[in-house]
Specification:
Blueprint: E1 12-16, H1 21-33, E2 39-43, H2 47-52, H3 58-62, E3 66-68, E4 74-76, H4 81-86, H5 92-100, H6 102-114, H7 116-122, H8 126-140
Parallel strand pairs: 1-2
Antiparallel strand pairs: 1-3, 3-4
């Protein structure tokens, strides 16, 4: 475990909507990819999220997911995708692709966010995936 980020201060924080099954399922996939445990999930509904996003109004806070890097930088929505990918094994190549098309990534993020309930309903294995995602998130929190 010497290569893993075991100190909470060395991990980036992923702030997600705990009331969104699709959000939890997607976050769970990223946490599975995160073999080095560089990401720590925190629900937007948690008091820690309010502290981490101090100065951000609740509407903006709840409208998106956010990444807080170990140095305290906050990135949100599509703007947070590339920095998060860079923290994952093999993620630098997809991060470079994302960085080359920021407008497209942001529009895609906003479309998915606006349609997450409908997308979630169409995903196979939804009922089995939800408890598995919740377990993985709880293990990493």
């Amino acid at each position: 475990m010497s290569e893993q980020a075991d100190d909470r201060n060395d991990r980036a924080i992923v702030l997600y909507d705990d009331d969104c099954g699709f959000c939890k399922r997607l976050l769970s996939k990223f946490l599975a990819w995160d073999r080095d445990r560089r990401l720590r999930p925190v629900a937007l509904q948690d008091p820690e999220a309010t502290r981490l996003l101090a100065g951000m109004d609740e509407g903006r806070r709840m409208a998106s997911w956010h990444l807080v890097t170990p140095d305290g930088e906050v990135r949100s929505g599509g703007d947070a995708v590339a920095p998060m990918l860079r923290m994952l094994p093999g993620g630098s190549v997809p991060a470079r692709m994302v960085e080359r098309m920021p407008g497209t990534v942001d529009r895609a993020y906003r479309w998915v966010a606006a349609n997450r309930t409908a997308i979630s309903r169409r995903l196979p294995g939804r009922e089995r995936a939800k408890p598995r995602a919740e377990r993985r998130i709880a293990e990493r929190a």
